[in-house]
Amino acid sequence: MRQDCIAILDLGSENNSALAREIRGLGVYSEIYPHDITVQELRALPNIKGILLNGGENRVVDGVEIDIAGELYGLGIPVIAIDHPKAACDTMAWGDAAALKKFVFETCGCEPNWNMKNFIADQIDLIRQQVGDKKVLLALSGGVDSSVVAALLLKAIGDQLVCVHVNHGLLRKGEPEQVVEVFQKQLGATLIYVDAADRFLDKLKDVADPEKKRKIIGAEFIRVFEEEARKLDGIDFLAQGTIYPDIVESGTKTAKIVKSHHNVGGLPEDLQFALVEPLKYLFKDEVRACGVELGLPADMVYRQPFPGPGLGVRCLGAITRERLEAVRESDAILREEFAKAGLQGKVWQYFTIVPDIKSVGVRDHARSFEYPVIIRAVNTIDAMTATIEHLDWALIDRITDRIIHEVPGVNRVCYDVTPKPTGTIEWE
After folding, report:
1. Which residues line the annotated binding site for ATP?
2. pTM (global) more than 0.85
């Protein structure tokens, strides 16, 4: 890495990600590490210029207050603590931007060299060192993360990249066709299309627990890739669009798991590939900036995010084909109406959810017992926190009318107004 780095030691705080983003906003790279990282491990990290002990009110893990090893202060690296009165070093209050800036630049002597041009140059070098002359298989969903990974890998290793698009039956309406059109026909990428919808849905039958669903989907993805790789020569690497919130939310030694991401917690122990994950330390807005720097078209870079498990985590509980189609069709209506209202590209993420419950309603002058559709529309910068988009009531009325009349088996529409936290962006 060519960039200077400030290490944040996680003492159980909820604002580690916000702090890392604030430092990166100063033009200095920052990364979060567990509180019990050893001195030897810290010393081995490249270009560490300073250490932040991020305490605050939650500097307790499993009921025990965290102690920091005394030898940390003998590393010869400046150390400062945030809201941790027992720390044996200088302290500062959370939110003191002036003190943080002074520590980063004056105390630590960092250079503001964290930018996408340097990041891309670093990653190209690292990818070439890791891959050599071997081939890389990329899970290409067509979303922002995998698209940026594809562009980065194409720049680094060219035709050594083989893209695989798996239709697991959990994609949005028209999405498989769009992926093939854009990446194979327009961009000329080597693309293998795999229709595995029945295979995935059979594996997910009667599975209601969201963590189990994510792990099944993640593991089955790997199996599909292994099967495709056996048909090819010289595939030793699997590329993924893992980003930093995936890692942070999937838990570290100190942080509790928010949810396991299919590309973090769902990988099988007998994985047959070495992983290539060039975006794994970027937040979502940084991924988009990387895409812009790589020259990807704006409509691809700013496409709203879509989870790896797809509609599987929006068809709540055990997936049925009936509810899955209700999610797919209602989502298509929502996206179409948002586009008509001029909200496409202005609202960060919007989608529908169908829970595994039914409610009494009236249809054709008779009692009905059908599913509700829940609308979610949020805005965020880094996917770590999110606010609700306040929709116009006339728009909600139009969307509701279309869903209850055009989507079979649905008699209610609800709007989720919960920010993150306390809710996550997705429901599962």
Report:
1. 141-147
2. no
